[in-house]
Fold these 4 entries.
Entry 1:
Amino acid sequence: MKPMDLSHSVVLITGGARGIGLATAQAFATAGATVYTGDLDTTLPPGAPDASPQPRGSAIAGSISGPWPLDVTSHDSFARIVDNVIADTGRIDILVNNAGVMPLGHFLEEPDELSRTTLDVNLWGLIHGLRLVLPHMIAQGNGHVVNLASMAGKIPFPGMAVYNASKYAAVGLTAAVRRELRGTGVTVSAVLPSAVRTSLSSGVRLGGLLPTVDAADVAAAILRTCHTRQAEVAVPRWLAAWKVLDGLTPSSLMTLGRRLAGDDRGLTADATARAAYTDRVATFTHSREA
């Protein structure tokens, strides 16, 4: 597959208001792409009417339009932003399915509605994006989708069981859809970061033996897949050896290593430091249940 020409690409990024999404939007804009971002939590651009989430005529090469209102759990909400970007530019060359949530705590204590939110955002958000954008990419004979997964899609972590489940599903979904697209000129990649210094990890003890990266590191990996069309990319890259290591190392030794690395940090997060993020996810969850 030939590399994507970022300077002439139209890019749509979900969860683009902050963190990895914002860093990725900035990286694409720096590369000369025409970037649109959507997010559930958003301050509309100056002059944009609150009731009309239509990114029309507002993005040019090397700039970012948005974040525009987008609830990735809603097919209709996702369809609106896709339709309007295509109406504005005629195409979407790159989709970055970045939006995600990461509740922490004991599995048996997590409310069902919060688990549903996690699965709907982290898995159904990808499904909606793929089903809405891929037909346009296939019709134009070229395109690339990046699904933000996680090393939690390869490594189980206590304290984030449903998040683990959603990311394992994201990795499998990406791999299967990628195979279905063979010969179309369209590719799908999964990017799997370790712990990232964003609001998702607020209140969690970072560092030590567990590698930690910045949002800009993940953004760089996302852009790299547009050139390589690689199926999976770990961030940092050396974590890609996990599958081999896990298969060759006795389980008792792996368990000890994971304990030394502090893989149970999801159970010991500082609730006060994490409160703003937890409240934001809870507000969205309650709005869906109302």
Note: The chain has one domain: 6-289.
Entry 2:
Amino acid sequence: MHAVILAGGKGVRLRPYTTALPKPLVPIGDQHAILEIVLRQLAAAGFTSCTLAIGHLGQIIRAYVGNGSRWGLHVDYSNEESPLGTMGPLLTMRDRLPDTFLVMNGDILTDLDYRDVLLRHRSSGAPLTITTYARKVHIDFGVLTTDAGRVVGFTEKPSVDYRVSMGAYGLSRETLDAYTPGLPLGFDELVLDLLRSSNPPHAYEFDGYWLDIGRPDDYDRANAEFTTYRSLLLKGA
């Protein structure tokens, strides 16, 4: 089983923590980098190889991870010379990817079963499998429904339930065939194209622990919670 970790972003939303470090290497719990946790989880799940898509401060990631042997993985690299969007880096490495593989952001903290995601993707026959997580948003205002200048409905401080993408996907290599290497490709563009096709993405619903470390508040929460969830996040790793 092979995984691609997207680790080329600048981590602008996480500044000042990412001023000198790439986001996947910021420490969690004063002991582990986010990327180290992910690599340990992948190895424990049975993955044997991994490609790191690097860009901003990529030389630091390369120096830290090396060939991945200390985690029992074979790690290689794909360097992003210019911003290519979330899925664009996959196009430049398409010829060396297996038929199906896992793709994930390098800044998520979760106990998601990556092996099961990939196996479920293979059995689904879908071009893309998106891991999803339930979110509830509380709106602290009275919400009005209007029509032609008249108020026709009112809800006091409602809650909205929806599912979000977790930043981990099962992907089939042939899904990338329609796109040109070297050109940007966003996750949104890929999903919308597939929704217009006769073979839409598959959803993998997850209700365990998940935290997207995108902002300073998320990073502070990750550090505050890591001691509590350490055994869960690193079980078998």
Note: The helical segments are 34-44, 58-65, 88-92, 114-124, 187-195, 216-233.
Entry 3:
Amino acid sequence: MDQFIRLAIRGISLSQIQSGIYVLLLEEESGRIKLPIIIESLQAQSIASALGKRDPSRSFTHDLFLTFAKVFHIRLKAVVIYKLVNGIFFSYILFEGEEEEGEGGKIDKKEHKIDSKTSDAVALAVRFQAPIYTTREIFDKAGIYFENGFPIDKENETSETGIENSGFLFFKEKSQQDLEKMTERDLNALLNHAVINECYELAARIKKELDRRE
């Protein structure tokens, strides 16, 4: 996995834009680059439960898979977020199982790779205490870069620290049409405030609009 970037879960935030939607925030080891991923409520609850932040008595399908894997000696080795298309993250699960081969009944370990919804893959990774990885290309497309706690323009390495127009105080209500009408400077400033206020879904939408203009 040397060619991949290892990620850690920074947190889960309730969307300020759409009811029932959450944002999973991942970050690389230094914490300088963060990757927001939109997930549904059930997966958000499952991840939070595995992290010990919800009622431990509630069981999820991911818990059943963990029990199943232990019985059949299946080990989840890693989760890899390997592709991003039109704002959708694609992931696969790398796991290792025991297989009986030959007349002698020799048991060997064999790796398998299966595609998975990213939120489900992360929920399993937490339970198996398995590492989560992504590619540099995905970070370049969707990662939000930070310097001293503030988002920065990764091309110019310049920090945006504020928004002069007081109308941006209502940034949580910005539609896609609003974003398309804004200048790049205003979008970068809005991106800063969205991240600071933990509106990561909006931050992801702004980042997508900035990338579209490149």
Note: Strands lie at 5-14, 21-28, 33-40, 75-85, 88-101, 106-117, 132-134, 144-147, 150-151.
Entry 4:
Amino acid sequence: MRLGIAVLAIFMLLVSCNEKEQNTKLAEGLWRVDLNVMDNQVLPFNLKVNKNADGLYSMQIINAEEVIDVNEIVIHGDSIIIQTPVFEGYLAGTFSEKEITGQFIKESLDRIVPFKATFGVEERFDSENNNASKDVSGIWETYFSPDLEEEYIGKGIFLQDGNRVTGTFRTTTGDYRYLDGIMDGDSLKLSSFDGAHAFLFTAKVTDSSLTGVFYSGNHFKEPFVATRNDGYELPDPDSLTFINEGYDKLAFSFPDSKGKIISLSDEDYQNKVVIVQLMGTWCPNCLDESKFLVDYLKENDNLKVIGLAFESAKTEEKAFIGIERLKERIGLPYPIVLAQFGSVDKVEAQQKLPMLSNILSFPTTIFIDKKGVVRKIHTGFNGPATGDKFVEFKKDFDVLVTQLINE
């Protein structure tokens, strides 16, 4: 039996355990969690442990300005399961008062990353030089996997205060979350962890260039290079995907969790402005967009939204469990149908929607007017970590939707 399945079985068995009966306690306050990734690198993130008056634990994952509340924690003896919110990933291990050792597990992808967590270590990264000899504040034109077939572009956006660095990389398909780290001499170290992805960026820095490696967990790495370019911008996300010649409308028929087939031809969507969201419950950028849509729909009940889920879960049953968990956790009011499971391959996804020129990103957002005409297709999502770009997206979204509703 794979370790991940064994741990999940233990998790299900222990859900009913009463934490207050356990003798081993976790120290309250800040911890540092170190994931062991490739090339003997360590990917750290900060974790705050809290305990309420009833003796129940809660936690907060901290990445720069992002604080992720964690309240699905199971303790039995010296064993602990920490389930991250919305996403399937969880931390499982054994603990003492000031140390936890175990694995970060994503079962659908058969991924297991060892970790060690230590109480009282507030610094995200250890520093060898204790000072910064370079400043990376500003905009960086970035190329991942440069000169390779897999090459793609990005835009680094960073702010440095002393030796602390925060920011993100934007790409044509989304952003790399809230990155948090340090400038250690001329070495840049940034990381982010949210339960879906574990990202580490390391780079050597000159006044005008970055040369580094991007690690995703312990299963993937790629080189990247960047140069300072304050005027650099990525391609227009509204120009990357379009309706193929020979098609005039978007069409699909996929089931929801109750087996009901939902399609744009249903009466609910006739003479309505509709947003179709290509997404997955494993996707942090999709979660950001879904939270935005939840808030937007509270003030705009004339808009209809349908989510088309492309899931990594290996069975239809597990895919729908993930979908229902997402809906429950963030109060999602619109239907999510299952377009694909067992793979999030974009080529396979496009076969489900042949009228689209290509599917480059999850999320992809399709704006449809009252006559069923596709008016815009937006690739990717600039989430809260992108600052001004997120503000710009919200403004443009509202302007277009308001125009379509008033037509």
Note: The first helix runs from residue 3 to 14.
